[in-house]
Design brief:
Elements: H1 14-34, H2 40-82
Length: 83
Amino acid sequence: MEAKKTVSTTMATPAAKRKSAMTFFGEMKQEFKTINWTEKDELMTYTKVVIGATFLCGIGIYVVDLVIQGLLHAIGYITTIGG
């Protein structure tokens, strides 16, 4: 036995869609009023912290790369002398 599929024939009217959209945007406007926005000084501090952390991570990666490169050159040098 096949289950019958029922299709909803009720569609939202354009007026209902407009009302729904207006309700959505009205609620969104109210939500934006409740947001606690970051102060300019606080934002500048956070930006400086992120830039500093990014710079330090970059320096750390560069140093680790130099160490690995030096080890690989040393291994290559040792293997050419012994061979």
